[in-house]
Amino acid sequence: MKISRRGALALLGMGAAAPIGAQAEAATGQAVQFLHGVASGDPLQDRVILWTRATPADPAKPAPNSLVEVALDPTFKSLVKAVATPVAADRDWTVKADVAGLKPGTDYYYRFRIGGVTSPVGRTRTLPAGPTQDVVLAVASCSLYPAGYFNAYGAIARLDRVDAVLHLGDYIYEYGAAPGDYGMSSPTAAKRTPQPPHEIITLADYRTRHALYKADPQLQAAHARAPWIVVWDDHETANDSWTGGAENHNPDKGEGDWAIRKAAALKAYYEWMPIREPVAGGLPETINRSFRFGDLASLMMIETRLTARDRPIDYDAQTLPTVDGKPDFAHFMKVWRDPSRKLLGERQEQWLAAELDRSVKAGEAWQVLGNQIVMARVCAPNLPAVMGEKAWAEFFAKLPDYAKQPVAQSAALSAVDVPVNLDSWDGYPVQRERVYDMFKAARARPVVLAGDSHSFWANELWDDGRKSRVAVEFGTTGITSPGFEDILVGAPLGAALVQRNPEVKYANSAAKGFVLLTLTRTEAKAQMMAVSTIHAEDYTVSALKTFVATAGDGGAGLAALREV
Questions:
Q1: Most exposed residue of 91, 281, 299, 435, measured as fewest CB within 10 angstroms of its CB?
Q2: For 277-306, what is each residue's pLDDT tens digit?
Q3: Where is average pLDDT lowest: 6-20, 39-53, 373-387, 516-530?
Q4: What's the pTM value of the predicted model, to 2 decimals?
Q5: Is 340:418 a contact under the CB 8 Å cutoff?
Q6: Count of structural domains, the chain
Q7: pLDDT for residue 18 is more than 80
Q8: What are the boundaries of the signal sequence (predicted)?
Q9: Domain boundaries, position 73
Q10: Are residues 161 and 71 in the same domain?
């Protein structure tokens, strides 16, 4: 299907309200402008969060209250709700309403009215209740603004059907706009410069970066198309974040206290995202929550960054020392398999076990995990063996200097059964096994969804010792963020990963796009939807691969993944 950027943006008109550009022009001199679109999220059977941002003409003056209208049709002749919501500077003029009293499994249209100005129209949908035939979800992750156009978001906006959009994190990135900053070597970077142009640290910085993203027309169109269910990964705060800090946070270089930076990032996130507010008295980091799609599936969104994650280990001298000139992998294994190292934390583990048990006992066909990071066991691929030593040597010589050290390390590790990425579930193997034990104890049929890696994945997850298949995993590639195959151009990386790793059935880090997941009572089908380019405004979208998971023998567990 060929899609033009103009065609995608036409979706923003969606009803009585004018498109963004026309509306902004018409609103000059009015009390507010709607420059950042509308969005909905966290749908339940009877309610949904509705969001917008009302940019004031004069921030020094109080803004009038917002009225959000909800109807069964885009012309608002069948109006069902009108809810007043305050507009205030202390929330950066963002507006969020938790609209209740809705019917399950129903499409609604909504708009905001403030000071005589009307927002664009959005479309949302409540979750179904009772018998449910099927559910269609778009799964997205990793949108680096300067790296390319958000064509994949435009493609999501144009889907014939999507019941909800799952965003698994890295919705924004924290880096600046210096020549060496992440993404600034892209051919689109000159047209898509991050704002503010420095690394974001303060509340004002994070708000400005969220505003930049929400001003993107294709992202606005995707938000206006369907409700979103979101979770953060690391870049919403800083790269490789954990409870006590982040790889990209350095107090010694003027970046301040981590707790202050994290609090600023989370405040901006809750302001700017269509997500339900934290429970009164609860920590904002506690973002884990579940959604029930009738009797078909429960979606359990877990948090793997800020609530309990211990600092990731690395292949450094402390974790992998050298003894008699050789890497001491025995020491590495001891540190790596330390049972005290955690990713979820005890409270979230207990919550997840209870949700799995509840879902299975309710007769739901699927237990879906909305999860930030890849769960499969993935060892480093042996590219020299796959390519041949001569071809590998020629290929390696042509790599950019910044890539040679990590690529050489990966090649060296390929001879040993250790993970290639210790910032994923692979860095917390004992914690992962506890989750697998939960799957088995509940007799669940889990579908794990993963972001973060900038790669498509179709994986079968097995417990330690490969005694039983416990889940399937579908990973979504980046919307724009570069994958390993953008660096290792021409290398058979996907084939090498499949050859090296029994759990990996498909891997592709060159494509950009999203996963379209369709659930029925008998199968979970994942289509790897790829856009043809992120460096031009016109593009096509197609399904690269499609994989299906079905029930195992006797209806329990899962059969082997199959490509269709």
A1: 281
A2: 998 888 899 999 999 999 999 999 999 999
A3: 6-20
A4: 0.94
A5: no
A6: 2
A7: no
A8: 1-24
A9: 28-126
A10: no
